[in-house]
Design brief:
The complex is a heterodimer. Chain A has 18 helices and 11 strands. Chain A is α+β, with helices and mostly antiparallel strands. Chain A folds into 3 domains: 110 residues, no CATH class; 127 residues, no CATH class; 161 residues, no CATH class. A 5-stranded antiparallel beta sheet of chain A has the order 5-6-8-9-7, with helices on both faces. The radius of gyration of chain A is 29 Å and the shape is elongated. Chain B contains 12 helices and no strands. The two termini of chain B are 31 Å apart. The model of chain B has no long low-confidence stretch (mean pLDDT 83).
Chain lengths: 483, 325
């Protein structure tokens, strides 16, 4: 498809038809413009023929002198009409393919080996709406949508300086999906962008339908439960990250932007933190950290404490746990595993079903299964309370849902099989895994370890804007800090 | 451990030294706080002198010639730490888990961390250092209400009563070799001195807190610091000892992985193949497992002797170079 265009419009069109396997939505039409034979190519549904007609008729009717050669007609359309053209001229079939699949119309002029691209996109897409999984109280309510250009424009609207740079490339051998890299050219080194582009272009993916597909190629490394790339649905968050010197990757057809590098501490931050008073934002962050540790460790520690070191439990609690365990047929370890598996099944069932049915499933699971299991003496009340507290805590850090769920099960197994020493060993391994991750040459656990001054401004606690604005955080500050 | 930054290495050495003092048997309470602190001060002064001399002499204690010695030192320390962890865990949790199982688990966790790289091990040790300091501060604070100044015994210092606790601290720990190798220039030497000072202060706070609470009763306890964790409380938070035990086991695991990493790096000098890192790790684990059958005291003797041997080899090599010039 790198072939240059032929002077024969028919040949060009038949080459494209051949490429698209005579698809029924590939629309071609022979027309005569100013007496010259031309061919229009577009995809139905992506482009509007009515729009093209209105543009062409309007433009052609106002021509002052008729062109004499196909080359003159090309110049005429390009320079003497008011038609909104694409800035690039199509000189090869691959260019034509790119523009047609992006929703533009391509006009081949018989007798000339270049084609005109006209922006007649009129594809159907979801309008900009509120984010589905990133709720906030203050700030913008906009979320990304599917078309890449709309998403880029949403970010561009927020960063109106010349520093915002957008680079596009394609990924996915079969889908040739358009991928955009957005960054601040003052803050991101060119070598980093070049490396990122190389990684995306060289990714051997057959198809790309979401930015997350590219994560494992961008953040290379061994297996890890945590993700070194962050995701957001909100243009405001993406813009804020760009202002910090991070890179945002958008993929056509996906409303989720990928942010690299992404740090562990960012999983506990939200847009509202910066709109709220600093003391409250800090309090909420502390809650989130506590919830994270509760979510991964509480069931495991509870099983371990009850089974191996009951002396650490307060007496009254110990009596209640013991009484409850005596009344149930399963040991505490098995009970905790069972409840956690059940909760995950319920969550998964509620997530994939249509919303009204999903709510019903949750209700049935919570009231009938949960309550009935406790009343029937199949499950102990302390187990259900711990599992419920754990599950609620999980929702405080939605971006860590996957690792938290798996780690929780691992901690239950560790606590149930080998007790406290295994819990400590697993916690150590988890810490090492977090400390060992790197993304675009930045430590995932920065700025906590290695400790950086930005940690004291916007780490676990957040200081007020009057303090943080004096020396705004840039991700490049974390490199070579002497630690 | 070439990828480890200076500050990280300083924290690593601090974490290794601090956790050894906190969890080792017969350091706390065997003698009065005053005598133990004086002994520790003498020991650290000697270490400081050693750092100064090696820096001035510009000798490389971890050269290729002495890599096998370094490997023995670190593997031995790794085994000793695993044994310490097992004995500490047994004391703290009173759990009938097989000792070999605990040692295996400790080594497995350390090896797991090692797969993430040397930098990871250092960063984890840095977290352990922070946790140790925070835990020590909370422990001291939680025992303020139990402290009684009259329990602090002060006695006249003589050569005889100072020598007794000094004999308990007469060994040179493996992390001292890291410190000696680390302090190659003035900037690093300053950091090394701060590490010694920090470790001394850390130990002093805990030692004095223990004596302020228990007085001379510490001498009848096997692990008086653990007793201190059990009596200390902040308001309704009465069982903070579980948190301290957790932090100290975490630090012990961090130390084990640091020693394992250092031993692997030393062994790696003898492998030139593609998977040298893996082979070195397997050899280190095997060596450590064998050494874990020896007592901790014997391993400390081996470590001390090997460190002296390393320094002597480095001095001889330096002298030879000077003569050649």
């Amino acid at each position: 498809m790198q072939d240059t265009l032929s002077k024969s419009a028919d040949k060009n069109v038949s080459a494209l038809k051949n490429y698209f396997n005579s698809s029924i939505d590939f629309y071609t039409k022979k027309v005569s413009i100013c007496g010259f034979e031309c061919q229009i190519c577009m995809f139905e549904g992506l482009s509007s023929i009515e729009r093209l007609w209105i543009m062409m008729l309007d433009a052609m009717s106002s021509l002052e002198q008729n062109p004499n050669t196909p080359a003159e007609l090309f110049d005429c359309i390009m320079r003497e009409t008011d038609i909104p053209m694409e800035s690039k001229i199509v000189a090869c079939l691959d260019d034509a393919r790119k523009h047609i699949t992006a929703g533009a119309s391509v006009i081949f002029i018989n007798g000339y080996d270049k084609a005109v691209v006209i922006s007649t996109q009129s594809m159907q897409y979801r309008s900009v709406s509120e984010p589905s999984g990133e709720g906030n109280i203050r700030g913008s309510k906009e979320a990304f949508t599917e078309p890449l250009r709309v998403n880029i424009s949403l970010v561009r609207r927020l960063i109106r300086t010349n520093e915002l740079t957008t680079v596009t490339l394609t990924a996915g051998k079969r889908t040739m999906t358009e991928v955009a890299i957005l960054y601040d050219q003052q803050l991101v080194p060119k070598s980093q962008i070049d490396s990122l582009k190389k990684k995306i272009e060289n990714s051997p993916l057959p198809f790309v339908f979401d930015s997350s597909y590219l994560a494992s190629f961008i953040c290379k490394g061994g297996f890890s439960l945590f993700s070194a790339a962050g995701y957001t649905e909100r243009p405001t968050v993406a813009a804020a990250k760009i202002c910090e010197g991070k890179v945002v990757v958008l993929v056509n057809g996906s409303p989720f932007a990928m942010i690299v590098p992404y740090f562990f501490s960012e999983n506990f931050q939200s847009l509202d933190d910066y709109a709220e008073k600093a003391y409250f934002a800090s309090f909420v962050r502390l809650l989130k950290y506590a919830a994270f540790f509760i979510a991964i460790m509480l069931p495991g520690v509870f099983v371990s404490a009850a089974g191996f070191t009951p002396e650490v439990l307060p007496q009254q609690m110990l009596y209640k746990v013991a009484a409850s365990e005596q009344a149930t047929p399963l040991p505490l370890f098995a009970e905790m595993l069972l409840v956690n598996f059940m909760l995950e099944i319920v969550r998964e069932a509620g997530l994939r079903l249509p919303k009204p049915v999903g709510h019903s499933v949750s209700l049935v699971a919570a009231i009938i299964v949960g309550d009935a299991a406790v009343n029937a003496g199949l499950l102990g009340t302390p187990t259900v309370v711990v599992a419920a507290l754990t599950t609620i805590s999980t929702f405080l850090t939605p971006s860590l849902y996957a690792p938290v769920t798996v780690l929780r099960v691992l901690f239950i197994l560790a606590g149930g099989i080998l007790g406290p020493i295994c819990i400590a060993a697993l916690f150590f391994c988890m810490t090492a895994a977090v400390c060992g991750m790197r993304t675009l040459n930045y430590d995932y656990c920065a700025p906590i370890i290695p400790l950086h001054k930005s940690f004291f401004k916007d780490g676990i606690l957040r200081r007020s804007w009057s303090s943080t604005a004096k020396d705004d955080f840039k991700v490049t500050d974390l490199k070579d800090d002497g630690n | 451990m070439k990828k480890v930054k200076d500050t990280q290495l300083a924290f690593l050495v601090f974490a290794c030294a601090a956790v050894r003092l906190v969890t080792a048997q017969q350091v706390f309470g065997a003698y009065s706080a005053q005598l133990t602190l004086v002994a520790l001060l003498i020991k650290y002064a000697a270490l400081f002198a050693l750092l100064f001399v090696t820096k001035k002499a510009k000798i490389n204690v971890m050269s290729t010639q002495s890599a096998w010695l370094a490997a023995i030192i670190f593997a031995s320390s790794c085994a000793a730490t695993a044994l310490d962890t097992e004995s500490f865990y047994r004391y703290a949790c009173d759990e009938p888990l097989d000792a070999r199982m605990v040692i295996l688990l400790v080594l497995a966790a350390a090896a797991c961390a090692l797969f993430c790289g040397d930098g990871t091990v250092a960063r984890t040790a840095q977290i352990a250092a922070f946790l140790l300091v925070i835990a020590a501060a909370v422990l001291a604070f939680s025992n303020i209400k139990n402290a009684d100044m009259s329990k602090l015994s002060m006695q006249q210092l003589t050569l005889q009563n100072t020598a007794q606790p000094l004999s308990l601290l007469s060994y040179i720990p493996a992390e001292a070799l890291l410190l000696v190798a680390f302090c190659s220039d003035n900037q690093r030497f300053k950091k090394g001195a701060f590490v010694l000072l920090g470790t001394f202060l850390f130990f002093a706070v805990l030692l004095v807190s223990t004596e302020l609470v228990f007085g001379s009763g510490t001498q009848s306890e096997l692990r008086p610091l653990q007793m201190l964790t059990r009596v200390g409380s902040i308001s309704v938070f009465k069982r903070l000892d579980a948190v301290y035990v957790f932090v100290w086991i975490f630090a012990l695991l961090a130390k084990t992985s640091c020693m394992l990493s250092a031993a692997r790096s030393a062994f790696q000098a003898y492998f030139i193949e593609k998977h040298s890192s893996l082979y070195a790790l397997l050899l280190t684990l095997l060596f450590t497992a064998l050494l874990s059958y020896m007592s901790v005291a014997r391993q400390r003797d081996i470590t001390t002797a090997c460190i002296f041997l390393c320094i002597i080899i480095a001095l001889v090599k330096k002298r030879g170079q000077n003569n050649a010039c």
